[in-house]
Specification:
Number of strands of chain A: 2
Subcellular location (chain B): Cell membrane
Helix content of chain B: over 70%
Helix content of chain A: over 70%
GO biological process, one term (chain B): transmembrane transport
CATH topology of one domain in chain B: MetI-like fold
Number of helices of chain B: 14
Strand content of chain B: under 5%
CATH architecture of one domain in chain B: Orthogonal Bundle
Protein name (chain B): ABC transporter permease
Number of strands of chain B: 0
Strand content of chain A: under 5%
Keywords (chain B): Cell membrane, Membrane, Transmembrane, Transmembrane helix, Transport
Oligomer: heterodimer
Organism (chain B): Paenibacillus glucanolyticus
């Protein structure tokens, strides 16, 4: 066979291909050095991702990955469960408010700090506003559970009492609890966003402002027409990171509201719903199905936000 | 200094100073709001009078100043043990994650082995997978291996630090490859080239990774909540959380605040000394992502 011209060509080609794919010592070294990363990624990210998908089609308590095959019924159960929708709504509400308030406030804050002519002051304010960011979610929740104490003894109720307002049941009134969580997470997250905005503000080219000065633009107009458009990628980055973080809310609501998401289920979030079903009710199949729904929602939101950025870019 | 030596129009300078003064005052007011929760926590933590109920009206100095609140916190909550455990977990994760990131970053940048791009792409795309989705299979994997309640459940997944790999690769890309070529020509082993030639140049990126990892691991709660079952293994976050979870939140203000303050000491100390680097690392990690 190899005597025919065609066969010879194939053999040649094959040996060439072999040479191309032959591993040199350098290649082996590369894989040896990357082995921890590759093992880590495969075992602790890729395998669990597929295992979760597999489990989501089964009814299983977790003793085995596969119990009985139930098709899409875990997904159907979640989508028909009013608690899931409540969790999703709560998560969205808290997420949207924290992201929007967080971005607006921290951008204003960063602009103010950036306008300080006084270097030491700039560094001082950066350090102070960032400080709550190193505090753990557990510590923040414990601290605010006292600051937001529902009767007049709580510090925040005391302060609003000075203005003649009645005490608010910050974490006990189902109408209010979600917004209290937003306020609490703002305290922690404000500094993080501010630091990133400050880094962005310092990257705006000086000559853009100088050109605007020549045209006689005021501070406010420069801010609106140069700074904000120039920082659009950072705004989009914040929106995406904030949305992803917001969709994963767990620690604070678990500690403050327990696994029931009290008061009145107003602090029930999607991850809390997953946690409950997986580790209290042993419904691992259902829990993984919900975790896939969460992943899909995050993917769609991220894609949407990125698209928003790209479309605006092409308009310029 | 140079700025102020330059002659300026007096009227303009005066207006700028007034504007700067208002700006500083506004920022100081904001800082005060950010700091008040810490002050309240500190004052309450030293107030024996607030061991059962929050003192009213709020005090700027403890009603019954005492360190008995801290003694009570340490006897009721096994703080020394939990802080020790957290240190053990953080140290292990920091060493494993940064080593994995540095080794792979070096290989991806300097060895340019076949399939390197694929490995990088694969690792980076897994960063999109939310931990909340993989935590259940991961938990089941560790329970199958009999590693629930074992710190290996922290150390093994630490190998997967794709973001660190990304940071390290970007850093190695800036270092010249000629260093390696010269050393290899002299017959040095690859691991020697890595550890003797390149690693000493990596201090800035190692510092960044250590800071980001420490803050992340020290403050983490969800994974320890799933993995740690016995109280002797608890990390500080989970120890604190379980104590309040079992005793009810909003109870024993000064004792809980004493424990919370203690749990913050390590991060606050690190923050005080490395504040500049932490802020730079955060800005860097934000921009790189």
């Amino acid at each position: 066979m190899s005597s025919t011209p065609e066969g010879k060509w194939t053999a040649d080609h094959r040996s060439m291909a072999k040479r191309r794919f032959r591993f040199t010592r350098n290649d082996w070294m590369g894989y040896l050095f990357s082995a921890p990363l590759i093992i880590g990624v495969v075992v602790f990210a890729i395998y669990p991702m597929f295992a979760a998908l597999f489990m989501s089609f089964h009814q299983t308590s977790g003793l085995n990955l596969s119990g009985a095959w139930v098709g899409l019924s875990n997904y159907r159960y979640a989508l028909e469960d009013s608690l899931f929708w409540q969790a999703l709504t709560n998560t969205f509400m808290m997420g949207i408010w924290s992201v929007l308030l967080g971005i607006v406030l921290s951008f204003i804050l960063a602009s103010l700090i950036n306008n300080l002519k006084w270097n030491l002051g700039r560094n001082f304010f950066k350090a102070v506003y960032f400080l709550p960011n190193v505090v753990s979610g557990v510590a923040t929740s414990l601290l605010f559970s006292f600051l937001f104490f529902p009767s007049k003894e709580g510090l925040i109720n005391f302060v609003i009492g000075l203005f003649g307002m009645d005490p608010v049941g910050w974490f006990t009134n189902p109408e209010v609890a979600r917004y209290s969580i937003v306020l609490m997470s703002l305290w922690g997250a404000l500094g993080y966003n501010t630091i990133i905005f400050l880094a962005g503000l310092q990257s705006v080219p000086r000559d853009l402002y100088e050109a605007a000065d020549v045209d006689g633009a005021g501070t406010y107009r420069k801010w609106w027409y140069i700074t904000i458009p120039y920082l659009r990628p950072i705004f989009v980055f914040m929106l995406i990171m904030g949305t992803i973080g917001g969709m994963k809310r767990f620690t604070d609501v678990w500690l403050i509201g327990g696994t029931a998401g009290n008061p009145g289920g107003s602090l029930m979030t999607v991850v809390l719903y997953i946690y409950r079903n997986a580790f209290l009710a042993s419904q691992m199949g259902l829990a993984t199905a919900v975790s896939y729904l969460l992943f899909l929602i995050i993917l769609i939101l991220t894609a949407f936000l990125m698209l928003l950025n790209r479309r605006k870019d092409s308009l310029d | 200094m140079i700025d102020s030596a330059l002659p300026k129009e007096p009227v303009r300078r005066k207006r700028i100073t007034l504007q700067q003064l208002i700006l500083t005052m506004a920022l100081l007011l904001g800082s005060f709001i950010m700091i008040v929760p810490f002050l309240w926590m500190l004052v309450t933590s030293f107030d024996w009078g607030a061991r059962l109920n929050i003192s009213f009206p709020p005090k700027i100095w403890p009603e019954e100043p005492s360190i008995r609140t801290y003694e009570a916190a340490f006897t009721n909550i096994n703080m020394f043990r939990y802080i020790g455990n957290s240190t053990l977990v953080s140290a292990g994760v920091i060493v494993i994650s940064s080593l994995s990131a540095l080794l792979s970053g070096y290989a991806l940048s300097k060895l340019r082995f076949k399939g390197a791009n694929f490995v990088l792409l694969l690792a980076l795309s897994t960063m999109m997978i939310p931990f909340e989705m993989t935590m259940i299979p991961q938990y089941l994997l560790f329970s199958k291996l009999g590693l629930v309640d074992n710190y290996l459940a922290f150390y093994l997944p630490a190998m997967n630090y794709a973001f660190g790999t990304f940071l390290a690769k970007a850093f190695f890309d800036q270092l010249p490859g000629s260093l390696r070529e010269a050393a290899v020509l002299d017959g040095a082993k690859e691991i020697t080239v890595f550890s003797r030639v390149y690693l000493p140049l990596c201090t800035p990126i190692i510092a960044t990774m250590v800071i980001l990892l420490f803050l992340g691991v020290w403050n983490d709660m969800l994974w320890p909540l799933l993995i740690l079952k016995s109280a002797t293994k608890y990390t500080i976050q989970i120890g604190l959380a379980m104590f309040t979870y079992n005793n009810g939140i909003n109870q024993q203000p000064s004792i809980i605040m004493a424990a919370t303050t203690t749990s913050l000491i390590p991060v606050i100390v690190v923050y005080m000394f490395l504040q500049r680097y932490i802020i730079e690392s955060i800005a860097l990690s934000g921009i790189k992502q």
